[in-house]
Amino acid sequence: MDQARLELRLAEARLEQFTLRAPFDGTVGRLDVSTGQVVDSQNPILRLIRSEELWIDANIPTERTYELGTGSSAWVTSKSGNDAAPIEGRIESLSSVIDPKTDTRLVRVKIQNLGGLLVGAHVTVAFTPPDAARALGGDSHPRSLAVADHASSPDLDHGSPQAASIGELSPTPSAAP
Fold it and tell me: How far apart are CA 76 and CA 106, in angstroms?
């Protein structure tokens, strides 16, 4: 009986040694290995998506960014057609570099994903409250955004006013651009 318990403890220790644990809750977005493939600790084997908080990168015309500031509010609305209420977020950063080809600056907005937006979803971002924009008779600079996963380069969608990407927040601040 003692031999069986010892073998069980050894088996549990081996299992623990080969068990992967993520530093946060998420969904596997991509698996880069196959069953039976030999892996090492230096190469990623999967992409884990953290979607409870998201960021939206929007290329905004430079002249419209001067009134914006870090910590200012922004409203993100899903373009999925489900008439979801806008999600209020905060401007996390404004690029200090202007893209000379498009005369835009990158504005990063962080939101709590209470509405269940999917990474890769199409969204619209506005920088005035929805009620105030309606009262002014317009939408006060909304941006229809082409959306991409944050790990890839966002493609410009020339059919909409600006392009952006929606992606999961990196688990460490240093991993975000």
Answer: 16
Cβ-in-10-Å burial (0-12, 13-18, 19+) of 89 comes to buried
Q: Report pLDDT digits (tens) over 90-139.
A: 999 999 999 999 999 999 999 988 777 778 777 888 888 887 655 445 54
Rounded Cα distance, 145 and 137, in Å = 22
Residue 122 contacts residue 146 (beta carbons within 8 Å):
yes
- Dihedral angle computed from the Cα positions of residues 167, 85, 141 and 56, in that order, rounded to the nearest 10 degrees: -10
Name the pTM for this structure. Answer: 0.62
Q: How many CB atoms lie within 10 A of CB 124?
A: 20
What gap in Å lies between CA 75 and CA 73, rounded to an integer?
A: 7
Name the DSSP letter for residue 174.
G
